[in-house]
């Protein structure tokens, strides 16, 4: 009879359970385990090698204390022999590593608020107490401690010095130009010496101008980026001021609001001009051709400037026959708008006329005015940057002198022509000449009133506004609610979908293009449409004026409105979308 301690017929006993019964089976796992351990050790050694041999500094630290770990490159940047010496000497980052305690506090607060920061330029203190310029990319690690951060440090001393050198060279260049100009004025006494010296100075000026143009190319890129960032807060301020203008305010407050509105309008126009002239000078602006009902667009511009004419006490006539073109609607509208603005700026009495005429081989858009006129020898100068027809203090609202420069460049990009005739004291005529091959079949006719100031009734219109900027949401809501809309603000796609789950049925969607986490307004619009199983009329409002974004939105049949938003254009866009929703 089999004893209880005997093995069962299955061949599995307590030894198997403990892993002791079969030595050969147990050993079969050792090679795989050993191989995995070796792989892990190799991976560890590789990361350790990268950490120790990186060209840029890397460290882990506690913001309330000192370093937890750092690599040799970080020690070299700070002027120490090795990481151990750096960790031993610097026990308080705020007082011993950063040149500015206030700047450290600002970085620390930003990390606590947002969790990370990228490529932030600052100065660190070296072992010999001299500053070193660096760019910091920092990531907060709450899993390791409430104020533990990991940081990537790049030494940018050479770049900063090069930038300072460039500024110094620019200053020296400007000084040289001033000195040469003064020399030209002084040598007028002696005619022979004047001719000889002029040739010499002109040659030097050519070299100086070429050097200045080369230096300004890098400035143009910075200007474009900085202007784009400034458009966001200006947009929020503009919408809020527009909402205040629509409200009932005492006379004194209403006058101040109007003055703020004028100031913001001037700042917006200047920024828009700077952005466009920068892109045109870099040859980064390409025409986005589309079919355009020219009559409808010019009619809309005419309605826009009727208000300007009424405020200035001037007559304004516009005569536009039905005609359609294949052109860049935005650039052509900008050309005509700038010419009309220029005409009203320099016309004190009489009026302005906008007309379209067909010549034998071209179509002519003409702007006539009864303004101050232009002397014949100045007709070519008016298309240069920062040139103004009237000197400061002679009356009239002064601009920055970029409007006609933008017109001339855009006309050239489109392949059109521009001509100006003028009589001082009598007025001027600007003519934009469009070759007839740009004209399309008259059977095609756009049903929209592009660029028109449509005044619709928005009472009860449900508008879903998607923007990741709280200030923009608040100001947009204030403006639209003043027009009678029901506004539903959302900071992204998920917030908008949550509103839909609670029963929201929007009539119109207005979405910013750039949202948080690299999301876009297009994606948010499509998500809402999928959730509702309905193509809700939508438009994109953005400060991004790049040709790539405009081409993308045109391909997706989404209207675009650039920030800062002008209320009359927003009203026109909203009326068009509302008409589609009915």
UniProtKB/TrEMBL annotation:
<feature type="coiled-coil region">
    <location>
        <begin position="156"/>
        <end position="218"/>
    </location>
</feature>
<feature type="domain" description="PAC">
    <location>
        <begin position="118"/>
        <end position="168"/>
    </location>
</feature>
<feature type="domain" description="Response regulatory">
    <location>
        <begin position="462"/>
        <end position="578"/>
    </location>
</feature>
<dbReference type="InterPro" id="IPR005467">
    <property type="entry name" value="His_kinase_dom"/>
</dbReference>
<dbReference type="InterPro" id="IPR000700">
    <property type="entry name" value="PAS-assoc_C"/>
</dbReference>
<dbReference type="Pfam" id="PF00072">
    <property type="entry name" value="Response_reg"/>
</dbReference>
<dbReference type="InterPro" id="IPR011006">
    <property type="entry name" value="CheY-like_superfamily"/>
</dbReference>
<protein>
    <recommendedName>
        <fullName>histidine kinase</fullName>
        <ecNumber>2.7.13.3</ecNumber>
    </recommendedName>
</protein>
<keyword id="KW-0547">Nucleotide-binding</keyword>
<dbReference type="InterPro" id="IPR036097">
    <property type="entry name" value="HisK_dim/P_sf"/>
</dbReference>
<feature type="domain" description="PAS">
    <location>
        <begin position="43"/>
        <end position="91"/>
    </location>
</feature>
<dbReference type="InterPro" id="IPR004358">
    <property type="entry name" value="Sig_transdc_His_kin-like_C"/>
</dbReference>
<dbReference type="Pfam" id="PF13188">
    <property type="entry name" value="PAS_8"/>
</dbReference>
<dbReference type="InterPro" id="IPR035965">
    <property type="entry name" value="PAS-like_dom_sf"/>
</dbReference>
<dbReference type="InterPro" id="IPR003661">
    <property type="entry name" value="HisK_dim/P_dom"/>
</dbReference>
<keyword id="KW-0175">Coiled coil</keyword>
<dbReference type="Pfam" id="PF02518">
    <property type="entry name" value="HATPase_c"/>
</dbReference>
<keyword id="KW-0418">Kinase</keyword>
<keyword id="KW-0808">Transferase</keyword>
<dbReference type="GO" id="GO:0005524">
    <property type="term" value="F:ATP binding"/>
</dbReference>
<dbReference type="InterPro" id="IPR036890">
    <property type="entry name" value="HATPase_C_sf"/>
</dbReference>
<keyword id="KW-0597">Phosphoprotein</keyword>
<dbReference type="Pfam" id="PF00512">
    <property type="entry name" value="HisKA"/>
</dbReference>
<keyword id="KW-0067">ATP-binding</keyword>
<feature type="modified residue" description="4-aspartylphosphate">
    <location>
        <position position="512"/>
    </location>
</feature>
<feature type="domain" description="Histidine kinase">
    <location>
        <begin position="225"/>
        <end position="438"/>
    </location>
</feature>
<dbReference type="InterPro" id="IPR000014">
    <property type="entry name" value="PAS"/>
</dbReference>
<dbReference type="InterPro" id="IPR003594">
    <property type="entry name" value="HATPase_dom"/>
</dbReference>
<dbReference type="InterPro" id="IPR001789">
    <property type="entry name" value="Sig_transdc_resp-reg_receiver"/>
</dbReference>
